[in-house]
Amino acid sequence: MASHYYFVIMVQILALISVFNVCFASRKLNALVEEPQTQLLRYHNGALLNGRIAVNLIWYGKFKPSQRAIVADFITSLSAPASPTAKSAASQPSVAKWWKATEKYYHIANSKTPLSLYLGRQIINDKYSLGKSLSEKKIVQLASNGDHKNAINVVLTASDVAVDGFCFNRCGTHGSKSTPVKG
């Protein structure tokens, strides 16, 4: 029965949200969300996520509510409908139009179900339950706390959390598992 379920339990994007102090309200993103005339990304016939996928955010450390809201709003905007008739909606930052460019790959791969992302659970671990120095194994353990079925679990660490190798030999990491990880 487990073979009928598609599990994605670990996609880690490590970010130092506390230094992310950019004001999006003043930026005009129209040029960034226009669909390009040519295909900029090359599809290499690999596996594609499909169907309705939750993006679960796992917050490790202390974050301000405004920091959590910025990331949650971004995830929500991935599938937000663009309203061309509403002037206020057209001026709001949204990546939905840009994200639609990925649908080309589903046509190339003859996928019957396109990808639809939505904001899933938000798990807040502000007590530093695994300490303030995290190994890759601890990141996997944190990621496994999110949903296992039809989900991408994103681990975000606060600025006072050290992650082995982060900023020295990598700026983030990602991976996937088709079976649950025991942590």
Automatic annotation (TrEMBL):
<keyword id="KW-0052">Apoplast</keyword>
<protein>
    <submittedName>
        <fullName>Uncharacterized protein</fullName>
    </submittedName>
</protein>
<dbReference type="InterPro" id="IPR006766">
    <property type="entry name" value="EXORDIUM-like"/>
</dbReference>
<dbReference type="Pfam" id="PF04674">
    <property type="entry name" value="Phi_1"/>
</dbReference>
<keyword id="KW-0732">Signal</keyword>
<keyword id="KW-0472">Membrane</keyword>
<keyword id="KW-1133">Transmembrane helix</keyword>
<keyword id="KW-0812">Transmembrane</keyword>
<comment type="similarity">
    <text>Belongs to the EXORDIUM family.</text>
</comment>
<feature type="transmembrane region" description="Helical">
    <location>
        <begin position="6"/>
        <end position="24"/>
    </location>
</feature>
<dbReference type="GO" id="GO:0048046">
    <property type="term" value="C:apoplast"/>
</dbReference>
<keyword id="KW-0964">Secreted</keyword>
